[in-house]
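Saturday, quiet lab. Running sequence design on the structure tokens for the scaffold JK sent over.
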């Protein structure tokens, strides 16, 4: 069925009816039915020319068909058994496509990669965006780039991190990736129509993170500062350090104790986390 236009609403509706399929909101099953958005994905992939692609949530195979034209190997991961049956119908004849029924959050990318680091493509379900991004970061040594569709407001907050509009998740992603926003994809580009708009964006994984401090301490400091946005830094750190320790650390790293945590750059956050580590290693 690879000759069928899977961005056609009529084709998709007929396909779903024939399979007696009803979308599961819990799984975020909103299928891309916009040709221009699909071509934007293809354009990015044609520029990068990845050899191996792993697709998160292959769905009906709309994107999978295009991936198979570009890469020598495509691993199409789909958790819903009903959709894997449809995938066998839409892309099962493509020799370079491997359909894997599995929860992506339980998928080990280190074992999936063959010749080198994989390129990840996916339309991320809105309610598990954070777990998926954390999973990707956790497997960053097996990933080259990721081209994703995700909820617009989440992507914008990640792109604005660190900063007043940023989030701990955004800092986690930005710590290990270069983030590029490609284009807006409205909610009516999907079927059924979701409640939010999406953004197509790219993550390019860095060889080294943007910080040098102990990772656990670095992100603990980030969560503390972003969890108490309205507090000055010297007050936000009181759950971790004594008042005397806070004043000493902030003076050593040259950070204004009356500033707020979301105003700190990666470099400043790194200096602060490194100082906290040293304080723990050399208690008074």
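Result came back. Writing it out in full:
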């Amino acid at each position: 069925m690879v000759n069928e236009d899977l961005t056609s609403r009529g084709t998709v509706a007929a396909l779903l009816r024939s399979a007696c399929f009803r979308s599961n909101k819990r799984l975020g099953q909103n299928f891309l039915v916009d040709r221009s958005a699909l071509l934007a994905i293809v354009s990015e992939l044609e520029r990068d020319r990845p050899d191996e692609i792993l697709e998160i949530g292959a769905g009906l195979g709309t994107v999978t068909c295009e991936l198979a034209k570009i890469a020598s190997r495509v691993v199409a991961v789909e958790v819903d058994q009903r959709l894997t049956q449809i995938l066998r119908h839409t892309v099962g004849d493509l020799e370079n496509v491997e359909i894997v029924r599995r929860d992506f959050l339980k998928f080990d990318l280190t074992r999936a990669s063959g010749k080198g680091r994989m390129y990840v493509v996916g339309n991320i379900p809105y309610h598990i965006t954070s777990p998926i991004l954390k999973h990707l970061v956790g497997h960053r040594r097996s990933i080259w780039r990721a081209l994703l569709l995700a909820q617009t407001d989440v992507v914008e907050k990640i792109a604005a991190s660190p900063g007043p509009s940023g989030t701990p998740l955004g800092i986690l992603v930005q710590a290990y990736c270069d983030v590029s926003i490609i284009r807006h994809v409205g909610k009516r580009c999907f079927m059924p129509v979701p409640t939010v708009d999406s953004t197509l964006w790219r993550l390019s994984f860095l060889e080294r993170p943007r910080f040098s401090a102990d990772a656990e301490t670095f992100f603990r400091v980030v969560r503390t500062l972003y969890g108490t946005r309205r507090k000055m830094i010297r007050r936000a750190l009181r759950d971790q350090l004594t008042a005397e320790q806070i004043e000493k650390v902030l003076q050593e790293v040259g950070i204004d104790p009356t500033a707020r945590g979301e105003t700190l750059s990666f470099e400043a956050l790194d200096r602060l986390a490194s100082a906290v580590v040293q304080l723990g290693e050399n208690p008074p």
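Notes for JK: The two ends are 70 Å apart (CA to CA). The chain has two domains: 9-205, 215-281. Ask whether to fix the surface positions before the next round.
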